[in-house]
Design a protein that fits this description.
The chain has 939 residues and is an alpha+beta fold. It contains 21 helices and 40 strands. Keywords: Glycosidase, Hydrolase.
Length: 939
């Protein structure tokens, strides 16, 4: 094959060839002509781009991306749900526990692995070693296969599994419910629900597993339970009656951090109630047993059902295969059992049913745990830790199981209702998948929720503490799905323990007296306004306003001449204080002023609102006149020139971030439309690389590649490029390498060569939001998001672990912002205002929405003379007074509104292309009701 002519595909396993390479061996691979081989990826998706020639890459990033017509068309098509099988199951690890409850993965074949649920595993020594490894990209270039690395004590996983036995006449069929028992097993991930299908032509039944922890938007407590639901649906696919046994087992792994027999004994006992049957695992011991050992309990449970007979065995031998499991279960008794702490103790359960031909039956199992005690470390981050949030809710894993059993219709059915609501949409499956996946970081060791009600998080798993303001302000998912957590972060952390009363600054890592990151400070102010909008009333804003106002005044001190442009040293998310004037930071400042004006008006502080507006008007003009070079926005470094990190005349990914934020909170413009669009087009032209990995290798004016979030042959949006020169002036030349470890990063320069998901998502949602009906920005924004989605193809790495300096990185929750802008969603709970402006197929659109007190589905159909819109509430309530719609191509003269069969008086107003429908009075939609709206061209 010619080295200078190759296509680029969206999936494949080039990383299998290159993931174990060091940066040096990668360079040798490329130099030896391996690039063409790496780009010829073998996958089942359409070719993404190409063919390219060597000339296309003379400027490293080709201006013509050569995206294929089929790949572009797939960006907006509904398409088919991705179902993984075979080798694609190798890396699957979907977080499957509750919010803040540790970390437990569901494998692609239905096994549970990575049992990191006992306590926070944070240890500073381990953390430092992990950080060193992560400078080369961590688990992105080195994905972890199921069962590798994440182990329990002595290098072993917790012993656990399920199996099925079927009796048909004289024949008996026994299989483990995993890839060994069913080699053709398939996986469909719809976070928070993982679906596994076990089917074989030689087996007389089909088994479908739905695995999840209860997850219901707006119901934070019920979505933060230390539990995993394993809901098996067994279907008789034969023409004979079947007797079916479903068996499961779980090791007593309480106190996993010690095996000293003198410390105590493991104990398994049977628990029964009208709602459930459980095997409860505990440890009873001497005074030497402490919380540091992972003290608590776990339980394996089967929920009661009239058609299901349940038997339990507190002690069975560790089964080596499915047949041994059923042999042990058939022979076991129900007496409680104790074992020394250094001996294995395994409990088991079995559900028995009978099925007629074609009949199905659901068997619901639970794995619950109660390990609420965190490790504390004096003098470091452990001091900020409390115990887990569920400590006061329950006293054992058995109580957790009883709680879920008693509310199974609400919790289990409610989770599945949300899952159906999310996917009952006209939007592409891939977009719905990727918008929601990053939220799974809340169910990993990234996120913690303490027993005093305070949320706290790393940036990524055990990496960079403090619910960092300059990382978390990119994230849009939690504020829309679990707004209670974001409001609590604002009150208890940002404007609580992190607030500096003397100055109005916010410690960017959740502690007072820490440094203030100006980008994070501005983003936190914007989040206050978002959290206010996602509230039912204005009580939250009124409580916080005095400190919010002070935090805005803090930013004003960075703009002493009040021209809307910040100067001086400005700490930011690239881990340095940049100096001078740059649009990235000043646009965030202007965004904070816009939010400050809106909040001041709502609380009646007109004088402060006017002050914000005065500076904002100045900045609106000056950001263009000072920093726009005719194509995009640049950085003018301040003194000492050449000594600080900067992007000078480079094209930076976040240059219009403040305007991007405006589209998340429904505010106006802080940067003019023309220059904003030009900047976004430039970011696409200069920063979107069909082969981002090779750019990082070749572009060495700043730094050789050292962290990998896009491998050779993978597309992505680069942080900064220098199409007009200036790359060598971007960073100090003597601070990049550690003397002790030359491979260790010591400065932010290499960030410029990277692709980092959260930043990419931010640009993607901004392009979508700015896109006019005839604009290519919609296509470009979706292409950026889809490139990330393809980088996380299951053949290459875990699709459910988005990585940036740590696993399950929180900034990736920015992906939800794309979903919101695709829907054109706006909402203001206290005002009772909601709006939609779909960007994909507005003629026949359907998508979910969440509000302050309820969630449901919005649908619209648009023709030449009529627009028909419906809001159906699936859960909770929705109070509304105003509905904002954009009937493209239609100039309606009349509106008809009905609810519960009766007409509602409404007034139609038109502002540009937007129709504002004002209801005569505030109404409250109830669950399972529909608001029906018709806009008619003729009166």
């Amino acid at each position: 094959m010619s080295v200078d002519h190759y296509p680029l595909k969206t999936t494949g396993d080039s990383s299998a060839q290159s993931s174990s390479m060091t940066a040096i061996s990668r360079r040798k691979f490329i130099q030896a002509g391996g690039l063409s081989s790496a780009l010829l990826l073998i996958g089942r998706l359409p070719v993404m781009a190409g063919p390219f020639t060597a000339k296309d890459f003379e400027q490293l990033i080709p201006a013509d991306k050569k995206l294929s017509a089929n790949w572009i068309a797939a960006l907006t098509k509904r398409g088919a749900a991705e179902v993984f099988s075979g080798e694609e199951l190798k890396y699957i690890g979907m977080p499957i526990g509750g919010i803040g409850c540790g970390q437990l993965y569901l494998a692609g074949d239905g096994r549970l692995w990575h049992w990191d649920i006992f306590k926070s595993n944070y240890k500073r020594e381990k953390h430092e070693m992990k950080m060193s490894a992560m400078t080369m990209g961590g688990h992105y270039p080195h994905p972890v296969a199921v069962g590798e690395e994440y182990t329990h004590q002595n290098g072993e996983q917790v012993a656990q599994g399920f199996a099925i036995r079927v009796q048909s006449g004289e024949q008996s069929f026994v299989r483990s419910l995993d890839g060994k028992g069913f080699p053709g097993v398939t996986f469909r991930g719809e976070y928070p629900v993982g679906r596994v299908t076990y089917r074989d032509s030689d087996f007389p039944a089909k088994v479908q597993l739905e695995a999840f922890s209860p997850f219901i938007p707006l119901r934070t407590k019920d979505s933060a339970l230390p539990a995993t639901t394993m809901r098996y649906t067994v279907t008789n696919t034969s023409d004979a009656k079947l007797k079916v046994d479903l068996g499961g087992y779980l090791q007593n792994a309480v106190c996993p951090y010690t095996v000293e027999a003198a410390f105590g004994q493991r104990r398994n006992q049977l628990q029964q109630s009208p709602l459930r049957t459980s095997v409860l695992s505990t440890v009873a011991g001497s005074q030497a047993i402490t919380k540091e050992h992972g003290y608590g309990s776990s339980a394996l449970t089967i929920l009661s059902d009239a058609n299901v007979r349940v038997s339990a065995a507190p002690s069975i031998g560790k089964p080596q295969d499915a047949k041994q499991l059923f042999t042990e279960l058939d022979q076991a008794d129900t007496a409680a059992v104790t074992r020394p702490l250094d001996e294995l103790l395994v409990g088991g359960m079995m559900a028995s049913i009978e099925l007629a031909p074609g009949e199905s039956q659901v068997i619901t199992c639970l794995v619950t745990w109660y390990f609420p005690y965190h490790q504390r470390r004096e003098g470091h981050v452990g001091q900020t830790f409390g115990n887990r949030h569920y400590l006061p809710w329950f006293k054992s894993a058995g109580e957790v199981a009883e709680y879920i059993a008693g509310k199974s219709e609400e919790l289990i059915d409610g989770t599945l209702l949300w899952n159906r609501t999310w996917y009952d949409s006209s939007l592409p499956y891939w977009l719905l998948d990727r918008s929601m996946i990053a939220l799974d970081c809340l169910a990993t060791q990234t996120f913690h929720w303490f027993d005093d009600g305070r949320p706290w998080a790393w940036e990524g798993v055990d990496c960079c503490e403090g619910t960092c303001t300059h990382v978390f302000h990119y994230a849009q998912a939690m504020g829309r799905i679990f707004p209670e957590l974001e409001r609590s972060l604002r009150e208890k952390t940002d404007y609580g323990q992190a607030f500096i009363e003397e100055t109005g600054g916010i410690g960017y890592r959740g502690h007072s007296r820490q440094k203030v990151a100006e980008d994070g400070q501005a983003g936190t102010i914007l989040r206050v306004y978002r959290e206010h909008q996602m509230s039912a009333d204005d009580a939250f804003l009124k409580r916080l306003w005095p400190r919010v106002k002070q935090s805005i005044e803090y930013l004003m001190t960075k703009d002493p001449d009040e021209d809307g442009i910040m100067t001086g040293a400005q700490e930011n998310t690239l881990d340095a204080a940049w100096t001078g004037k740059f649009a990235w930071m000043s646009s965030m400042y202007l965004g904070a002023l816009a939010a400050g004006e809106a909040m001041a008006i709502e609380v009646g502080d007109d004088a402060f609102a006017n002050k914000c507006r005065k500076i904002l008007d100045q900045g609106y003009q000056n950001i263009v006149s000072d920093l726009f070079d005719g194509e995009y926005f640049i950085h003018k470094p301040g003194p000492p020139v050449g000594k600080g990190f900067n992007t000078n005349v480079g094209c930076h990914i976040d240059q219009v971030l403040g305007q991007s934020w405006m589209h998340q909170v429904g505010l106006g413009r802080v940067i003019p439309k023309k220059e904003t669009v030009s900047a976004l087009e430039s970011i696409w032209k200069y920063n979107f690389a069909p082969d981002a990995g090779s750019y990082a290798l070749k572009h060495r004016e700043i730094e050789e590649a050292f962290r990998w979030y896009a491998m050779e042959g993978e597309a992505g949006l680069l942080m900064t490029t220098w199409p007009k020169g200036g790359a060598k002036d971007a960073i100090p030349g003597d601070t990049l390498r550690s003397v002790e470890n030359p491979e260790m990063w010591t400065g932010p320069g290499g960030y410029f060569n990277e692709c980092m998901n959260g930043f990419e998502y931010q640009v993607a949602w901004h392009m979508v939001a700015e896109a006019a009906p005839d604009s290519s920005l919609l296509e470009k924004g979706l292409a950026i998001m889809k490139a990330v989605h393809d980088r996380y193809g299951a053949a290459k790495r875990n699709p459910y672990n988005e990585i940036e300096c740590g696993d399950h990185y929180a900034r990736s929750m920015a992906s939800y912002g794309i979903f919101l802008t695709v829907c054109g969603f706006t909402y203001h709970g206290p005002k009772g205002a909601i709006g939609f402006n779909p960007k994909i197929h507005p003629e026949n659109f359907k998508a979910p929405f969440t509000a302050a007190e309820g969630w449901g589905t919005y649908r619209q159909q648009l023709s030449a003379d009529t627009m028909h819109a419906q809001l159906k509430l699936n859960w909770g309530s929705l109070s509304m007074k105003t509905l904002q719609l954009v009937p493209r191509g239609l100039r309606p003269q009349k509106v008809e509104v009905s609810y519960r069969g009766g007409a509602i008086a409404a007034v139609l107003k038109q502002v540009n292309d937007q129709c504002i429908i004002e209801l005569e009075q505030l109404i409250t939609l109830a669950t399972d009701t529909v608001l029906d709206v018709k806009l008619l061209a003729e009166s």
